[in-house]
Amino acid sequence: MVKWITLKQSDKDRSLGLETGAEYRQRWVSIRVVYFIGFLMFLAFGIVATGIWPYLKSLDPSVSKVFLGYAFAVPPLGQLIFSPFFGWWTNKLTSIRIPLVLLVIIFTIANVLYAVIEEFEDNRKYILLIARGLVGIATSAVTICRAYISSATRLSERTKTISLMSLAQCLGLMVGPIMQSLFSGIGEDGFQVFGLFRVTMYNVAGWICVFLGLFNLILLLPAFFKDSPIAVKEAMKSQGATNAKETWKSIELQYFSITIMVTAFSVLMLVYVAFQTLLSPIALDQFNWTNEESLFYLGILMTAGALISCILFLMLDPLCKRFSETNVLVYGAMLALFVSQLVMIPVGSEPITAFLENSGNSTGNGTALGCPPTQEWCSSIPPIGKVQFTISYTLLCISFSIGTTLSQAVFSKLLGPRPQGTWMALLTCAGSAARILGPGAVTVYVLSGTYWTFGGGSVLTGLVFVWMWVYRNRLQPIVVVKPSTAEEMKVLNPSKLVQ
User: Fold this and answer.
1) What is the pLDDT of residue 241?
2) Region class of 366: left (phi > 0), else alpha (psi between -120 and 50), else beta
3) pLDDT tops 80 at residue 424
4) Residue 145, Cβ neighbours under 10 Å: how many?
5) Which residues, in sequence order, are bridge partners of residue 496?
6) Which of 73, 293, 360, 396 has the smallest set of CB atoms within 10 Å of its CB?
């Protein structure tokens, strides 16, 4: 831990002969800049999550909730469209600084636009949509960051580094709503700044991101950030190769294993986003809660889930040193994901409507609570229990934390030391598509009920778990070692020896 804080190169690292002490320190300073980029990009989502709806209503009182759905769907759509281009472009460059600087500039401009929307007279809600779309394009930086971590870490460092990157992103999502709450005291009227623009409780989120975006641009200056292709150096030394291209071309791509990892990452994201979208409808329909009770109890549950995720991100590296990365991924993530869906299937004989009638399904002012009559399945399907709900969400958080981190780590190692910009864009696009499709689970829930929603989720996650379990030995990275004078080059796979 002391070495990690002081950036001091250990004797073991120095003995490898891959870099000097100064290069080691610069490499880890640059990786920390990448952590900050990850934090900032996810902060942009978290900080507007609770404030974007009232902000929209203040800009245009006639706006509908359907349009709010568009505001949340546009950022991942922008990421989905532009990530492949930036991933491809990164592979063509000797340094990732230019695309990162460009994306952070787009991020800053997007948040300036978000913060000054009220200065426009017409079409304010569409300007907000443009601002959120630009933020989505800017988050293509996550693809570049993933590719950079793959090239700037040795194999033994990669899992820990990706875990800390995931932790930075999780903290961004956690801190965002807290910052929005802290600045709510500014009020709707806010205050004028130099008579040029107004800062309110709604647009302060944009101004915070603008300030942090400008700070990020400073961190990307050559004094702080440098490209460090240590992964290629490590591979060249192990193979005895003379150039980088020769090194990564000697490692054949394992397309089948790569397909498994992209599928696993997509399913993890899809189920997680779907469940997050369903949290409030389930709480209101199944538990007879008021809106106030739902916000209070779900807030506690989500905070606890975020803390569990943060703890797991810190525990993953020592856990993977004790057990195989693949086993931790298959059992700790995919099995837990399958069980989280299975647990949510309702059990019992009494339908939801009978349960709610026994509990009393109206507030003191006569407002109806519980499952609405338009959802006819409520009269034939038993309710989900609070214990079921809590266990399922806990398992989901465990699965998501372990799965998204290790799937990225294993995916990166399967690719070897080759440029990974385009490949990481594929992983980012898979996650973006899942974030777009995930909210569709609400439609399945409303029309067909919990049996179809979580029964379908159980089948999907169960099939992916079995697939990964059967082929778990093929998810190990290939390591090429330098041939000795006595024997020919051997390609070592942790699960078998290939000659």
Assistant:
1) 58
2) left
3) yes
4) 25
5) 493
6) 360
DSSP state of 159: H
Residues 6+ apart with CB under 8 A from 156: none
CB-based burial label for 460 (10 Å; 0-12, 13-18, 19+): middle
Query: Is the Cα dihedral 152, 153, 158, 161 positive or negative?
Result: negative
Buried b (16+ CB within 10 A) or exposed e, 12-49: ebeeeebbeeeebebbbbbbbbbbbbbbbbbbbbbbbe
* Per-residue model confidence (pLDDT) at position 475: 87
Residue 151, Cβ neighbours under 10 Å: how many? 21
Across the strands, what pairs with 498?
491
Give the whole-angstrom CA distance, residue 98 versus residue 106. 12
The whole-number pLDDT of residue 38 equals 92
The SS3 of residue 491 is strand
Residue type, 281: P
Instruction: Read off the pLDDT of each residue in 194-209 and give the average, rounded to a whole number.
Output: 82
Side-chain-side CA neighbours of residue 153 (13 Å): 26
Residue 329 near residue 474 (C-beta atoms within 8 A): no
120 beta partners: none
Contact 369, 356 (CB under 8 A): yes
- Per-residue pLDDT, 375: 80
**Is the pLDDT assigned to residue 483 strictly greater than 60?**
no
**Sign (positive or negative) of CA dihedral 345, 347, 353, 357:** negative
- Spatial neighbors of 82 by CB under 8 A, at least 6 apart, are 136, 137, 140
pTM above 0.85, yes or no: no
DSSP string, 217-241: HHHTSTTT-----HHHHHHHHHHT-
- Rounded to an integer, the average pLDDT of 463-472 is 95
Separation CA 455–CA 367 (nearest Å) = 32
CA gap 104, 97 in Å, rounded? 10
Tens digits of residue pLDDT in 203-250:
888 899 999 999 999 999 998 998 888 877 777 777 665 666 666 566
Burial status of residue 223 (CB atoms within 10 A of its CB: 0-12, 13-18, 19 or more): exposed
Span 108-117, mean pLDDT?
92
The separation between CA 464 and the C-alpha centre of its own chain, rounded to angstroms, equals 20
Contact (CB, 8 A) for 357 and 265 = no
Q: Which of 419, 95, 92 is nearest to 247 (CA)?
A: 419
SS (H, E, C) 316-381: HHHHHHHCCHHHHHHHHHHHHHHHHHHHCCCCCCCCHHHHHHHHCCECCCCCECCCCCCCHHHHCC
Q: What is the pLDDT of residues 295-321, one digit of tens each?
A: 778 878 888 888 898 899 888 888 988
Q: Are 214 and 108 contacting, i.e. CB atoms less than 8 angstroms apart?
A: yes
Nearest Cα to Cα of residue 330 among 139, 131, 476: 476
